[in-house]
Amino acid sequence: MSEPRPRVMLKLSGEVLAGAEGAGLDPTVLAGVARQLHSAQTKGARIAVVLGGGNIFRGLGAAAKGMDRVVADKMGMLATVINGLALMDAIHRQGGAAELFNAFPIGATARPYARDDARAVMDQGGVAILAGGTGNPFFSTDSAAALRAAELGCAIFYKGTKVDGVYDKDPAEFDDAKRFDTITIDEMLERRLGVIDLTAATLCRENGIDIRVYRMTDEEVVIRAALGEPLGSLVSSR
Question: Residue 80 phi/psi, 5° resolution?
């Protein structure tokens, strides 16, 4: 009997579900992501997904314009629930298994997050979709993904971005930007590269979770990440 695949954490931004419109939900994109996750399921992947909510509401942007930060963050957390419901439904329509967990009570809309329940879904071949961030304001969805990765025993944290890895400076602004195939979390923090926030990076480093930064628009990239392929740049916890 073959060994089970390592558990994998996928952080997907809300924008990836918006498609070309940049806001809302694109049914074609949503179906494509769901198809890839279902395909990974059939190959034995053990997957947790944390979704952002920026396609619906961006809490930091609202706070910068004067909204109370706690209120703005709560609205952002609710946006992730909407995305989570949409992804769960899309996976079900593909014939796959998925369960939505939320970090704070929300009635019958989602199951309350419990580590053992979410891990059981993953180990039984379903996708554990984790909404609501950490359930607290002032924490990013990157931090939520890192926290859940540690709780669930994920071997690696895949973070989708607009670029194909970690660079020493913004490749959109500098033609001579250098891409790293491998970099440590400590070096990334020392260089202030801004790939992932400090809380998320610290959680990954202290729990031995490697991070892979990849371009989320690459072809079939969701299934490749779910199956643990060496995409983009490796940010090593060691």
Answer: -70, -30
Query: Measured between alpha carbons, how far is 78 from 53 in angstroms, rounded to an integer?
Result: 8
* Cβ 188 vs Cβ 195: under 8 Å: yes
Kindly state whether residue 2 falls inside one of the protein's structural domains.
no
Boundaries of domain holding 147: 7-236
What's the mean pLDDT in 2-8?
A: 83
Q: Phi and psi of 211, rounded to 5°?
A: -120, 135
The alpha helices in 45-101, defined as continuous H runs, are 59-64, 69-93
CATH assignment of the domain containing 35 = 3.40.1160.10
Which residues pair with residue 131 across a beta bridge?
Answer: 102
Does any domain span residue 1?
no
- Read off the pLDDT of each residue in 140-147 and give the average, rounded to a whole number: 94
- How far is it, in rounded angstroms, from Cα 157 to Cα 160? 10
> For the chain, how many structural domains are there in total?
1
User: What pLDDT shows up at residue 1?
Assistant: 47
The amino acid that residue 112 corresponds to is: P
CB neighbours of residue 168 within 10 Å: 14
Residue type, 83: N
| In the predicted structure, residue 168 carries a pLDDT above the cut 50 | yes
Residue 198 belongs to some domain of the structure: yes
